[in-house]
Amino acid sequence: MGSTSAENNGTGSTENNGTSGVGRRALIKRSAALGLVSVPAMSFLSACASGGGEDNSGDNEGKTSESNPFGVKEGSKLDVVIFKGGYGDDYAKAWEAAFEKEWGVTSVHTGTQEITGKLQPRFNAGNPPDIVDDSGAQQIPIDVLHKNGQLLDLAEVLDAPSVDDPDVKVRDTLIPGTLDAGMQEGKVVALNYIYTVWGLWYSGKLFQEKGWEAPKTWDDFLAICKDAKDGGIGGLAHQGKYPYYINVAIMDLIAKKGGLDAMKAIDNLDPKAFVGSDAAQEAIEAVYEVVEKGYLMPGTNGLTHNESQTRWNQYKAAFITSGSWLENEQLKTTPDDFDMKFLPMPLLPDSALPFEAIRAGSGEPFIIPSKAKNLPAAKEFMRRMLSKEWSTLFAKEANSLTILKDGVDTGVQLRPGTQSTVEASKAAGDNTFRFLYTEWYSEMGTAIENASNELMAKRIQPKEWLKRAQAAVDKQAKDPASKQNRRD
Amino acid sequence: MRKGQHRFVAGFLLLPVALYLIFVIWPYIQTFGYSLTDWKGQSQTFSFVGLDNYTKLLQDDIFMGAIWHNILFLVFIPVITILLALFFAFMVNAGGRGRSGGVSGVAGSKYYRVIYFFPQVLSLAIMAVLFGAVYRSDGGGMLNGVLIKLGLVDKNNPVEWLNEPNFVLWALIAVVVWHGVGFYLVLFSAAMQSIPRDVYEAALIDGAGRAQSFFRITLPLLWDSVQTAWVYLGIAAMDMFILVSTMTAGDYGGGPDHHSEVMSTVMMRNFLLYGRSGYACAMGVVMLVLTLIVSVVMLRATRRERIEF
Amino acid sequence: MSAPLKETAPTGGPTPPPPPVAKGTVRPGDRRGEGVVLNVFSHGFLVVWAVLIVLPLLWLVLSSFKTDTQIGGSAFGWPQNWDPGVFSRAWEKGIGDYFLNTVIVLVFSVPLTMLLGSMAAYVLARYEFWGNRFLYYFFVAGAMFPVFLALVPLFFMVKRLDMLNSYQGLILVYVAYSMPFTVFFMHAFFRTLPTAVFEAAILDGASHTRTFFQVMLPMAKPGLLSVGIFNTLGQWNQYILPTVLMQPQSGDDPERYVLTQGLIQLQQQQGYASDLPVLFAGVTIAMVPMLVVYLSFQRQVQAGLTSATLK
Asked: What is the DSSP letter of A404?
């Protein structure tokens, strides 16, 4: 088989890569003996490994300098794949144009929803793009990519000087904590670029008409739901076909009630994360109350995100759960005078965190494949993404904020929903939190979401929900690989 | 002559067999190879783990549940589709009683034959969009909308068709049947038309009713086609991936709470989402073996004396 | 499936004796009563089923003329946006290219499928040689494999042949995956052709190859037509194979999506920046040519299938 340089090149050779190289070699010996795994495929693989190596180190490497820390080579090509979801991909095209002007590197742009379909074969073939926005329903899970040794450790980019102020490292220009979501086994392998807040949303217009105040406590929230129900519409809508959304609300209630310790207990797979946690119990019982009293928008448990969000836009429910991408996603169906507003999760009695506390953090993971052909340009591209110029471009084109501190020029006019998230973030200050188990343990996340779906459909009670969630945690804790993820 | 014949046979078989070997058989054999590894799907690095994946499979409740759902599909999809298709084919070809006393299709059978075939021009992916709207869980869905108008369903409590553990499988079966009846109607019609008219007319003279001529004449003479249909529908029932994964809740479908899980959805979730591709390949091999068993059993079970005419 | 190797003339053989129908068990009077009930019931059922088929399809077409808010809001409601521009918008979204790609692939893959499939089926049906039975089952068993299983190894195979994202690659794969169905039905069909013609041709000194192309194949035309149409439908609606094989392998590889891929892509875009009417317009565009093909050939399809069932 070819050289192993492909895996080790440029990345400061992660441990994972090292072991996988051995694994591959060992396998080839065994498979030759067994005659089971195809020889042609394997020889192809080795061809590809060595091919990747040459590409990596050769053609695309230019001279490094202070302003060109990674050695971008003029005239080289950059292969960019962007998840074309709620934020579109116009922002990326604007970046690419700027990048070409600056470096003479032309980008080949792909905007798609089918990240897995498009990229899994390319990752397998050792022929990945140079930079990827790996997001959306068909995202390739970051933990899986990382375990396969496909991701570049981004430390090099983060420790490089910032474009705006060369005396400061890129890392230090970002909103604190926003890199956490991209951590796998202690390394930042994905840059979650977009600053997102999660919570409830309502229509300012509807609330004014009905004379409702944005609720700060769970009781007030329930009172509005009741009022809504009496008025012939639903209280709470959620995107039932994708239990992810309601699950966020449940988890956030737990975190706000029990404080950061309750959250960490879950992320760290504590044997009392759910069963035996008062916060978890009270939170799930509170959510179940909404179900039991019939405050859900009729049919919402089975609706897709488009369907339920459109219904909410048509004033068929008072509240909906979502993250801050909601406004951009609903641009077309939101009435002009809808006045979309963000609301932090209302508080349960005696909560550890204040009402203003929100789940906030970064979404939309950008990755650089470790086998990318034009690594220097990819790194530089990412460094530029974290400049004020590009961050402003993003805010203009995609109507959302990035993880760069003060990343938007003051002149940019934001839409009402986004504006309300800016205000909510300011009010929250340091009171933000973010679960990480979803990034670390896809299977456990799925199991908990399933349980939440059952609860919303009234097929299980809070007690059973706690048991199932705990079972998912316990199962994950048994996996030896889980020990490498931990937060304090 | 003899030698020439051999060369001819070999020559004719060479290309088809080669293509088939390269693109169909060989990949399947490789899949078996992968099933003995801990392959994670996003790179070609893995090691050999023997039969571990298969022993794990036996303890995987979700996969075992999925097998059970496939079996349900296997029973109901062919039975319902074939019965409906047979009935329609009979009505369209021999259900009418001409004034002259001859045997023909019912009035308008020409149109039925065309209309019933329509769903065949839709790909399964489009069917999923269509039936997503039919089964929509609020008053905006076609089914719920109609039922609410008829007063059969409470407006504030619509049926969440695909989110009801007891209903979701039936909802899926209905889609497959809706799609498939047209094809088998054509298949059976073709076979029925090859039954000489005079057989029916003779029966008619003997005083046989419609039901009788169906059970005594049509069905036995159609047995070969029914067998074909049975095998094809059985194979379709073992798959079901596209419909289940796009119509039901959860990543790669299977919801609510695994109640509509089929083998292929569990397999794909493990393959793509959990990054346990070697394990997924083992599931695939199990699927393959089960499908083979099913086909053989179906062929044996439906074997009957052929009736010549 | 294990039919005796004897000839069965399709139709027009000697007039068969009437099958054993129980005589006189039903009195004529009864039959009339039964007839009326059955008539109402069966006609009613036929009509209901037709409505069940037409309504959703009609809904699909009409949805092209709705607004996003209407579609998201409720499945009912009469379209309010009678703008034929939605079709040209769908066309511009690339439906035109996807369409062309699909046609390019099918123009080659369907005839090639029929040619190779018939050759294999013919030899297996009409010649006895060692391994015949095995080869037959070998082909037919292919229909039982779930395609998903083969995807990754298949991807590597096609990649090795340097045919990813190429028409010829997809064509060959389509041909290979259509073999089971084609061999299965054509095998049955060739069995039903009379031996006499074949023997006469051989006696006249025609080679086996010539006999096949000039005598047997023309005789099998109805079978070829109907199996050909089913293959066309199947390949037209194929989604999984092109998804894996027709993806650009690098950013500057041109996109050669087929229609199903394009529609799914359209559908997935709707999840984020909805232009749902365009999706429905796209689906309508994709539906029409297949309907036309079926409507113009349906007589032949029926005729062709007459003798091509499992024997």
From this structure: B
